[in-house]
Amino acid sequence: MPDPLPDRPAELVFVYGTYRRSASNEARMKGVACISQAMIRGRLLKVGGLPVLVVEPEAETWVRGDLFRTDGLELEAFREYEGLVGEAVDGRPCRLMTATVYPNNVPESGRNVKLWAWTEPMTGAEAIPSGDWLEAEYPGSPPLFTLVACACAGAMPVGIFVCAIVRQNQLIGGAALLMALLAPFAGWVAHRFARRRRERWNLIRTLVAVALWIECVSVVILVFSLIHALTQGVF
Fold first, then answer.
1. Which residues pair with 45 in a beta bridge?
2. 186 forms bridges with which residues in the sheet?
3. Distance of CA 176 to the CA centre of its chain
4. Cα–Cα dist 219/128, whole Å
5. What is the pLDDT of residues 12-64, one digit of tens each?
6. Which among 2, 6, 176, 234 is placed 20 to 30 Å from 168, CA to CA?
């Protein structure tokens, strides 16, 4: 059940850059409740390697981000971390303002929340057409961890097959069984890193995630069955 939106818009902050979930500075939001994904009308720019939001209520383009519930102390901590002096960051005009964003990326669900926005034209800015900072920060990394997750998903049936054909060799059979039991969980770890890096091969990664989930459930059922059988044998 998703966390319902509170009725106090001053406590909601729209985050569109490096503080987003899965972005490079997401640790700064640790312990802050994330309500939902959201979007706002405007343009997302890149200046000096950092995201810049220009709010344009009548724009046809959207900027995507996350909606967090914060308090006054957290807002001051963000202000200090970003080096916000008055209404400027590094000499550029920036201020904390209230604007309409759309939770859950639904255009009919507008809410007034707080956000940091640049208020004057930026020189030397690079436009981010997608409006999604995550795509700019992680532009489709090579599928390294996706390949690892694929290998782990295939390791379980391979391990079971090896166990079946080398029954006489307990050492090899035991190693193969251990590989079959642990591989799905190692695959989940690799899958998490792949998502974090926003690697390519999204469809393959989704299919692998389904296979890993089935394998993990199978391993858990098998382990509990073995424990039950052992306890029945002992008692």
1. 52, 127
2. none
3. 33
4. 44
5. 889 998 888 888 888 888 888 888 889 999 999 888 778 889 898 888 899 99
6. 234
Among candidates 37, 33, 16, which has minimal Cα distance to 25?
16
Closest CA to 103 of 77, 67, 135, 71: 67
What is the distance between the alpha carbons of residues 29 and 59, in angstroms, rounded to a whole number?
Answer: 29
Mean pLDDT, the chain, whole residue set: 80
| Integer Cα distance of 52 and 32 in angstroms | 22
- Cross-strand partners of 88: 85, 93
Give, rounded to a whole angstrom, the gap between the first and last alpha carbons of the chain. 42
Tokens coding 3: 């966390």
pTM of the model: 0.58
Separation between Cα atoms, residue 92 and residue 87, nearest integer Å? 8
Residue pair 22/196 in contact (Cβ under 8 Å)? The answer is yes
Distance CA 230, CA 21 (A): 44
Using an 8 Å Cβ cutoff, are 192 and 158 in contact?
A: no
* Residues in contact with 138: Cβ distance below 8 Å, sequence separation at least 6, in sequence order: 22, 197, 198
Q: Report the pLDDT value the prediction gives residue 190, as an integer from 0 to 100.
A: 92
Structure tokens at 45: 């720019």
What number is the average pLDDT over the span 86-100? Answer: 67
Q: How is residue 22 written in tokens?
A: 């899965």
Q: What is the pLDDT of residues 182-215, one digit of tens each?
A: 999 999 999 988 887 777 777 888 899 999 999 8
**Domains of the chain: residue spans and CATH:** 9-137 (3.10.490.10), 144-234 (no CATH)
